[in-house]
Amino acid sequence: MASPDQVAAAGGLVEAITPGQPAAVLPQETKQAPPVTRKRPPTRKLKPGDLVCGDCGEGNLPTRKFCSRCGFSLAEADIVKTPWWRRLLPRTGAKVRKSGERPKGRRGKSKLGQAVSATFRVLRRVVSVLLLVGGIVYGVSGDFRGWVNARAVAAKQGVERMIFPQYTPVSPVQVSATSELPDHPGALAVDGLSNTFWAAPRDGPEPTVVLRYDRPVSLARAIVRTGARDEFQTRHRAEQLHLVFSTGRTADVTLKDNPDPQQVDIENGAGVEWVEIHVVKVFQSVKGTDVAVTEIELFQES
Q1: How far is CA 120 from CA 117, 126, 190, 291, in A?
Q2: 181 and 254 fall within a common domain
Q3: Which positions ≥6 away from 155 have C-beta within 8 Å?
Q4: Looking at 163, 178, 195, which one is the last position of a domain?
Q5: Tens digits of per-residue pLDDT, 95-141?
Q6: Is it the case that residue 68 has pLDDT exceeding 60?
Q7: Alpha-carbon separation of residue 242 from 7, 130, 206, 215, 268 (angstroms)
Q8: Residue 1 and residue 7: Cα distance in Å, rounded?
Q9: Residue pair 76/67 in contact by the 8 Å Cβ criterion
Q10: pTM (two decimals)
């Protein structure tokens, strides 16, 4: 045990220190924990350039240094950006000028701008007068109305040709076939009728029809009826046609196994004087021994 002299202290008595025990400590003032700020939705609609508080999420004007809701510093606040699509739109509203800057010319326009505006006003008046006079003449004069209508129709057709290509049929002046049945010659494949057909033995030479023209043509499209319409299942039907042109180029056309007209595009058919159409593949018939083609119509782009 310690002596009484060793336990005296300034301002009062202190308990004796017992070996192995912690020293006595005076009570300390309780410190409150700092309030925890949670992010909340902003109280105002955010605009481009606003500063978003990183502590509470409030939107603030670009001129503020501290958050208007929690007082947190805005030095590292996020800036609301302008959407990309809004940057593409022209700016509206009054033009903001710098201090001391004055507008150029009358109503803020330069001399060039005034000249352009004056020219535009004159042209607008002239066009208005011409439209008024033209409308009166169009309503009174039948000849003028017919002339305008013809020009309008021609312009419409020109635009349609640019968007939707037009095709015109081309007819051969001579038709021959490498093989054909006596009652179904190759010429029946291009006679424009759907109740006749060209037929050739399947076990003979490759069925081929040759079409010759009196001038160079540019073949771009075909409408084909394969098989025989009234005897569709009793004869072989053309499945693939191989076209050989007088220019030395070729093209292949694949058909479906049905009697309906089939529209197909033709490649490499520009500037030809004749074309050979070979039946190189067929849809087999369980009964027939010959192959039939009802009609082949060829067209060139007009």
Answers
A1: 5, 10, 61, 72
A2: yes
A3: none
A4: 163
A5: 555 555 555 555 556 778 788 888 888 888 888 888 887 778 777 77
A6: yes
A7: 122, 59, 11, 22, 12
A8: 11
A9: no
A10: 0.50
